[in-house]
Amino acid sequence: MWSRSPSSPGERASTCGIANTPAVTVTTQDLVARWRHAATCPGRSPSNECQSRGPEKRLEAMTIPAQVGGRVRSWMNRPEMRGVFWIWAAMTAVLVVFSLYVPARLMGPPASPTMHAVENTMTVFTVAASPVAAAVWSVALYSLLAWRHRGSGQPETDGPPIRGNTPVTALWLVLSSLLCVFLLIWGLAAMQSVTAAAAGRVPLQVNVVGQQWLWSFSYPGQGDIETDQLYLPIDQPVVFHVTSKDVVHSFWVVQMGIKIDANPGETTVTNVTPNKLGTFVVRCAELCGLLHADMEAAVHVVSADDFAAWARGRRSPPVESSPPK
Ligand SMILES: [Cu+2]
């Protein structure tokens, strides 16, 4: 709490009367000097370099540089900007390495061109976002470390007011706009490449039904085979028609890069072309009840011949056993 002490002409004083802390007497002239300093030399405390450089240097600090480059350079030459820059550089390096090696690997080896495109896009977007995220976090971290008030009382003075810098603002807007345009073009090209990969080939149609808490599949073009495990031929486009019998589920084949909601009373459609032999997992990606975490099914990607043999076996009528005599 600030309280004014009895004043004499020419030297009014304010006293910082915080309980349990030593009182600090600040004269009106001190406060006026600080306000003037904050208005003309933002970013430096009144007790440091700027005030001690003498009238000529102070006059230089008050002069608005005519050149835009000069304003940016003066902004970058502030002591706090050097600290922020080194934190930003270190954070960016760590985030770029993380972006290149971690997120895509968490998803597993890709099993379709769609997943290739998804992982590449995820990596590019994360790398592009790294310097932006680092810029925000480095300012926050520097502020916490360098400008943290220590002690139990209130700070003696407030920080200088934040003032705009038009060239820096324009630079930031131009760079972030260019980054957004680049990411938009990249995303559109990735979508186009996935769509083009499946064009010109007859797709296999598969109906997918979710219900608490299992998946069932049927193949309308293969004699209406029904199964609780997916069998797919490699390198053939597949179209999934997805619905639900009860609540909302989400059909997600992680390593194939496809995920779409299974809504009761509606049919949603997604497609993929598996290009890797092996067994993968369908997961439910929508919280759907008590056993949601166990709502999984196997996806077997097999050769075309093996798929045809499996389909023939599923279509054959079961051999009736002879009645016991
Ligand atoms: Cu679920």
How many domains make up the coordinates? 3
Quaternary assembly: single chain
Please give the order of strands in the largest beta sheet: 6-5-4-8-11
Q: What is the β-strand count? A: 13
Tell me what portion of residues adopts beta-strand conformation.
Answer: 15-25%
Number of helices: 9
Structural class: alpha+beta
Termini separation (Å)? Answer: 103 Å
- Ligand kinds: copper (II) ion
> Considering DSSP H and I runs of 4 or more, what fraction of the residues is helical?
40-55%
Radius of gyration (CA) equals 33 Å
What profile does the largest beta sheet have?
Answer: 5 strands, mixed
The outline comes out as: elongated
Average pLDDT number: 78
Q: Report the order of strands and helices.
A: EEEHHHHHHHHEEEEEEEEEEH
Which stretches are poorly predicted, pLDDT < 50 over at least 5 residues? 1-28, 38-55
Task: Explain the overall architecture.
The protein has 325 residues and is α+β, with helices and mostly antiparallel strands. The chain folds into 3 domains: 1-63, no CATH class; 69-147 and 165-197, no CATH class; 204-315, Immunoglobulin-like (Sandwich). Helices cover 43% and strands 21% of the residues. It has 9 helices and 13 strands. The chain has helices at residues 28-40, 49-52, 54-62, 68-76, 79-101, 103-106, 113-146, 166-197, 304-315, and strands spanning 2-4, 13-16, 24-27, 204-211, 214-219, 225-227, 230-233, 238-244, 249-253, 258-262, 268-272, 278-284, 296-302. The strands form 3 sheets. The chain has a 5-stranded mixed β-sheet. Strands 7-13-12-9-10 form a 5-stranded mixed β-sheet, with helices on one face. Strands 1-2-3 form a 3-stranded antiparallel β-sheet. A hairpin with an 8-residue loop joins strand 1 (2-4) and strand 2 (13-16). Helix 5 (79-101) runs antiparallel to helix 7 and helix 7 packs antiparallel against helix 8 (166-197). The model is unreliable at 1-28 and 38-55 (pLDDT under 50). Bound molecules: copper (II) ion.
